[in-house]
Task: inverse folding
């Protein structure tokens, strides 16, 4: 599905990503861990096309997308969210998701029929709201949701693009601790239904071990450890990087 | 002849510099395009014309100094009232409200001038006539034009000193570069904003005062000057002293030479330059984003 | 909820149309021409609001596209007086303003916020300067007179200008206005309209869901400019005379004034604003030599006290009177 091969990214003279390789298959949910400044967000930006690697290759379904623009990558099936919630605050919750569905169907450039008249897209959007337990908010503007629901909607929008590969940058940041597992249940459930390959940046080890099949530990621009959550937790070097030094 | 055109260009540039500086500061520091800025210039013009009219027979320099001082005080005072009552609540409002309130103020001032000074044009050419002319490379040239350039140079030096050498100037530049940072550093934003605005208003008033000995004060005089100042600011860059100077020179010289050769070209050419700069470098030649 | 809104809106529109069609029976001819002016300007206000409310950018130079439409009519008459028909004039208005706004818009949409406003303003002034200085071609500051056109081959010779305006032309203006309103309503509710609002709310996110932000903003600019052009074309016959002033910044400012006066948060606000502005200005001018004190003072008060405009104020009041229901924002 997604392959990252020997990717290097340098800003000026400093190497932020120094020869990273990994691949993620269909149906796989992989966590990317690492202390602050390890290069996690840079890695996400490289995959989504917001940054170009200094060297190395990125492939999606075997196709080289290293030089594709973010827009081209979206159309090829890579979707991402950001660490900070980004919604269309003044649009209704339904329109937030429907706009994404219409985008995926290449129907956004239509001028005359009202968006609500696109029955299939509307049904699909409502179904997605159902999956993410947001249907009761359909007609409210995005700005009126609680912080946790905003985060869920943010993920729902990314999901509505029907990506082959999903990049989630801290999908539970800003969500109250008590709700984190509920939110993750919803997200993982939705992803599982479609078999989307997913890379999640997450700090919370409990979430990682509950929801991710594999873990990549990034430190100082290289992959320090990889394996199942259990294997990584048992790895002393990973332990030191993740728990000893940083916090 | 070329020298005369160049001198004329410098003379235009001097005016533009005085009237644009305030516009540039407000746009740079507060992010507001003050459409009423030309009205402050108009106030300066009418006040100066009134004083020069009152002082017929006095020495030219005395007339000018009195008129200019009165114009600056009044334009500054109107600026003070305008900033503290109407503009202050606007800084946090969206762009459309900021622009429209200055548009409304422009209309108010325009009619207030009419109310106070009447609708007729006011001539005040006495100082210009009294100063006579000298000969430069075989052409007669009004001394008054040279006088204006001298005054502007002094005003420019003063502003440069203020911005570069005083605490006030350093704090103003800090606001311009990073508003939030400046606030966090405990710079008294409110007071500085007022000072900057009043300073800009007084300079516009001075510009208006210096123009009336050559062209009468008329209703609507602020509108034309606003557009010229707008071009200067766009070319030079928002909030930049150097940019305003260069922009004024560029516009002044372009104007002087196009008027000499093909006057119809002046405005289209100037707007063309402004548009090109906005497209290529929207922050202007010397501005920062 | 949506259906309720749509049906109540449809009912309101039907009522408004009936009232407009009945006005000639009630109003004096003079007032009828005022309504005509207001309706033609309303098309422009709707156009501006597509950018302001739905795309989130403020154009301070929309006079340029109004002028493009009006001058298309004027130049058509100047250079092809034998073919001066209304239908051709409207086509010219639409075509020329679409072309000019496509060209100007292409550079403007690369910017947002104050830079967008300044660039639109500079472009409008460039247009103004050309219209005024190229007087051999455009009539310069004297402008161009707009005579009565032919209608699909029907000659109006012998008809007086005034009769034309309060007679057939009134119904034409109402028809064009109604059509323009429905088209704009469709546009803002279409997938394109939603995508445009998405770019306004969050440009970063809009790009991430696959919206080509600049391109969509450009489409909106062209639609908006073409509405202004149509408005300028329709208005040129009402006014009978056009000058470069309509491309100047003062007129561009007045367009924004209209939209804010009516209230830009509500779809129909700009229409109300254009009508009110036409009356306000006219009455102020008729009433006192110091009409700018009234028009400017109203503007200052509006900005300070009624930021939602007249319709926003009414909606707010209605929401407060009926606490059981949400505000009727559309």
Result:
């Amino acid at each position: 599905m997604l392959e990252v091969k020997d990717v290097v990214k340098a800003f000026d003279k400093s190497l932020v990503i120094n020869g990273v390789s990994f691949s993620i298959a269909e149906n796989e949910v992989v966590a990317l861990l690492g202390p602050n400044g390890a290069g996690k967000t840079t890695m996400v930006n490289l995959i989504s096309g917001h940054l170009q690697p200094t060297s190395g290759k990125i492939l999606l379904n075997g196709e080289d997308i290293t030089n594709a623009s973010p827009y081209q990558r979206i159309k090829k099936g890579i979707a991402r969210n950001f660490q900070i919630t980004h919604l269309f605050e003044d649009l209704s919750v339904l329109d937030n998701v429907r706009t994404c569905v219409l985008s995926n169907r290449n129907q956004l450039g239509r001028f005359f029929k009202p968006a609500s008249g696109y029955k299939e897209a509307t049904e699909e959007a409502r179904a997605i709201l159902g999956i993410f337990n947001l249907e009761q908010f359909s007609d409210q503007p995005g700005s009126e949701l609680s912080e946790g629901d905003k985060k869920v909607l943010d993920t729902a929008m990314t999901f509505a693009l029907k990506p082959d590969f999903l990049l989630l940058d801290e999908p539970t940041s800003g969500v109250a601790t008590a709700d984190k597992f509920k939110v993750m249940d919803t997200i993982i459930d939705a992803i599982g239904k479609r078999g989307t390959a997913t890379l999640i940046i997450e700090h919370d080890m409990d979430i990682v071990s509950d929801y991710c099949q594999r873990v990549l530990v990034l430190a100082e621009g290289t992959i320090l450890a990889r394996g199942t959550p259990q294997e990584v937790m048992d790895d002393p070097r990973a332990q030191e990087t993740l728990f000893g030094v940083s916090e | 002849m070329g020298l005369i055109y160049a001198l004329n260009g410098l003379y235009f540039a001097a005016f533009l510099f005085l009237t644009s500086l305030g516009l540039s500061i407000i746009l740079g520091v507060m992010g507001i395009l003050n459409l009423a800025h030309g009205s402050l210039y108009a106030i300066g013009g009418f006040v100066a014309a009134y004083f020069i009219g009152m002082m017929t027979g006095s020495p030219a320099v005395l007339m000018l100094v009195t008129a200019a001082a009165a114009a600056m005080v009044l334009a500054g005072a109107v600026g003070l009232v305008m900033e503290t009552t109407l503009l202050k609540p606007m800084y946090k409002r969206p762009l459309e409200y900021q622009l429209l309130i200055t548009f409304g103020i422009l209309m108010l001032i325009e009619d207030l001038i009419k109310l106070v000074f009447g609708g007729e044009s006011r001539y005040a050419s006495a100082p210009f006539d009294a100063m006579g002319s000298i000969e430069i490379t075989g052409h007669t040239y009004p001394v008054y034009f040279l006088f204006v350039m001298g005054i502007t140079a002094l005003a420019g030096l003063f502003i440069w000193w203020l911005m570069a050498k005083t605490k006030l100037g350093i704090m103003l530049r800090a606001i311009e570069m990073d508003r939030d940072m400046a606030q966090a550093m405990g710079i008294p934003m409110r007071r500085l904003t007022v000072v900057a605005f009043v300073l800009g208003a007084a300079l516009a008033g001075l510009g208006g005062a210096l123009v009336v000995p050559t062209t009468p004060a008329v209703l609507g005089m602020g509108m034309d000057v606003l557009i010229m100042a707008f071009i200067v600011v766009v070319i030079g860059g928002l909030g930049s002293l150097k940019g305003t100077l260069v922009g004024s020179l560029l516009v002044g010289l372009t104007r002087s030479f196009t008027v000499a050769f093909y006057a119809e070209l002046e405005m289209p050419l100037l707007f063309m330059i402004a548009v090109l700069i906005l497209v290529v470098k929207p922050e202007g030649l010397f501005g920062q984003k | 909820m949506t259906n309720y809104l749509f049906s109540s809106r449809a009912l309101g529109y039907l009522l408004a149309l009936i009232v407009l069609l009945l006005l000639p029976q009630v109003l004096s001819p003079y007032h009828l021409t005022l309504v005509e002016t207001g309706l033609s300007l309303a098309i422009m206000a709707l156009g501006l609001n597509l950018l302001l409310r739905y795309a989130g950018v403020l154009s301070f130079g929309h006079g340029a596209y109004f002028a493009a439409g009006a001058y298309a009519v004027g130049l058509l008459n100047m250079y092809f007086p034998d073919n001066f028909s209304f239908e051709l004039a409207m086509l010219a208005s639409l075509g020329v303003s679409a072309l000019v706004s496509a060209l100007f818009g292409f550079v403007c949409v690369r910017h947002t916020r104050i830079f967008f406003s300044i660039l639109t303003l500079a472009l409008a002034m460039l247009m103004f300067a050309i219209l005024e200085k190229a007087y051999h071609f455009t009539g310069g500051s004297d402008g161009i007179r707009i005579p009565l056109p032919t209608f699909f081959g029907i000659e109006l010779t012998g008809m007086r200008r005034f009769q034309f305006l309060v007679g057939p032309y009134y119904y034409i203006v109402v028809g064009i206005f109604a059509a323009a309103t429905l088209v704009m309503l469709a546009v803002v509710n279409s997938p394109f309209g939603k995508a445009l609002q998405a770019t306004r709310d969050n440009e970063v996110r809009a790009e991430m869901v696959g919206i080509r932000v600049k391109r969509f903003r450009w489409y909106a600019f062209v639609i908006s400019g073409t509405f202004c052009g149509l408005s300028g074309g329709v208005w040129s016959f009402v006014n009978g005379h056009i000058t470069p002033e309509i491309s100047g910044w003062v007129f561009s400012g007045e367009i924004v004034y209209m939209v804010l006066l009516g209230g830009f948060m509500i779809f129909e606000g700009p229409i109300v604003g254009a009508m009110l502005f036409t009356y306000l200005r006219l009455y102020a001018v008729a009433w006192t030599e110091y009409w700018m004190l009234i028009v400017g003072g109203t503007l200052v008060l509006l900005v300070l006290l009624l930021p939602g405009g007249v319709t926003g104020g009414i909606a707010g009041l209605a929401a407060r009177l009926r606490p059981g229901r949400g505000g009727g924002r559309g």
Q: What stands out?
A: Chains A and B do not touch (no CB pair under 8 Å). The radius of gyration of chain A is 18 Å.
